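Q: A reviewer asked whether we had any structural model of the full assembly, not just the individual parts. We don't, so I'm hoping you can provide one. Inputs are below.
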Amino acid sequence: MLHEFERILIGPREMGLVDADAAGSGIDSFRLMQNAGEAVAALALARYPDSGRFVVLCGPGNNGGDGYVAAAAFARAGASLCIYGIGSEDLKGDAARARARVEAEVAPLSAYACRPGDVIIDAIFGAGLSRDVPQDVARIIADATKLRLPIVAADIPSGLDGETGEIRGAAFSATDTVTFMARKPGHLLLPGRELCGALHVFDIGIPKRLVMARAGKLWENGPGLFSDALAGPTAESHKYARGHVAVFSGGPTSSGAARLSATAALKAGAGAVTLVSPSEALAVNAAHLNAVMLREADSRAIRAMLGDHRVSAFVVGPGYGVSAALRELALSLLTKPTVLDADALTAFASEPKSLFEAIHAEGATVVMTPHEGEFGRLFPDLASASGSKVERARKAAARSGAVIVYKGSDTVIAAPDGRAAINTNAPADLATAGSGDVLAGITAAMLAHAAPAFEAACAAVWIHGRSGQVAGGGLTAETLVDVIPQAFPEMV
Ligand SMILES: NC(=O)C1=CN([C@@H]2O[C@H](COP(=O)(O)OP(=O)(O)OC[C@H]3O[C@@H](n4cnc5c(N)ncnc54)[C@H](OP(=O)(O)O)[C@@H]3O)[C@@H](O)[C@H]2O)[C@@H](O)CC1
Ligand SMILES: [K+]
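A: Here is a predicted structure for the entire assembly that you could use as a starting point for your response.
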């Protein structure tokens, strides 16, 4: 399990503050730049010992400074070297100092023509990228991409926004990225994650407490975030002590989704699971269930479950059908921890406020699991707002009062108090029919273990991703459910 420091993600702006704090506490900032640049050069020399030539591309800020330090290290190592820079005569501070120590000629960046055999050291833009890259940089990126040149990026591939993971006009696709002290959100969010290649985090000597002091509440998702919150089921524990999940089924032709949620909840360790079914779907549900209990959905049954202390979490939405009745049902369940998924999200598209007000008024424990389309229906203004997926999920959580699982290949989990995690273990195969229903069921099982909503959601997303890895290529929602228990041993 990763130590907490290794899981934190720190935005470029906060990293700038860490930098200033380090300088303020008497740490030599030029020493930090030297450590950074030398780490980049060391990695490149180790990875490409037979390189035709190292081409160091240096920008106008401190990322460029790292590049000049790397260039000096290549020269000392006797490697073949070319240096191209933007505004190399107008550099300031540490970058100017690093440039002054380079004896080789520095040509203007626009003069660089890629050629096969080059290994590019990308030190054009790092944390300070503030707009789309200029045309000559975009041209070099296109040429290097076409020739598939190896690229070692300093801090972050140029053109990639370290906060959002978005591409500003064009970005290098690196073979390796060497970043400093801690990863940035843009290294994990898509499409950024796919442009970083192998990501190396190098300790350049800033005390960890300074980094921790500026880090926001953002982490890579993983067991360290949630394993303490999950009381593991023991051999002696009574089935109801491991929680009882109730899942609401749709009608006879759309009952499969709820059954997937129900069986996933059971496999994820809920002590008992009941499928609550409309009378007309009882027969089809009964034909497909064994360990999951079945109960007819009438108002008496729902009242009884709300009053039964053993019933600990609900799932509503998968395959239910969008209707006013679903809105009413969802609102009536909020006295217990509830997962709202699929149709239960779309049902509130025309009146999301009524849901959010009810959640806030009730102080309800709710996890909502929207994919991109459902997120856009519930939070249309946020979906089209600029900023990162993390920011959008955080705002949605604060507004709704629910923990938001904003699904995708880079699922973000966000809590109303601002905590957030980016999930990275989901294989592409997980994007299959019924996968979301499985996630909703696992989430309810975690809530039924009495885990707080944020930790429950983080655990569920991670278990879901890990199960996807175990199930492998060609997985279906059914094979995914079967392997859920195999994800658990890796959580401790
Ligand atoms: N954190 C640490 O502890 C340490 C950090 N270190 C390193 O410092 C890096 C951050 O340095 P940084 O702040 O100087 O930013 P950087 O990325 O060099 O760019 C700023 C320059 O680029 C310009 N510019 C921006 N976008 C542009 C565009 N689209 N097109 C054209 N120009 C554009 C911008 O101009 P401006 O926006 O001001 O007009 C400014 O001149 C960090 O990534 C790491 O590598 C290490 O040395 C060791 C310690
Ligand atoms: K860079």
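A: Points you may want to mention in the reply: The first helix runs from residue 4 to 7. The domain at 223-491 is CATH 3.40.1190.20 (UDP-N-acetylmuramoyl-L-alanine:D-glutamate ligase).
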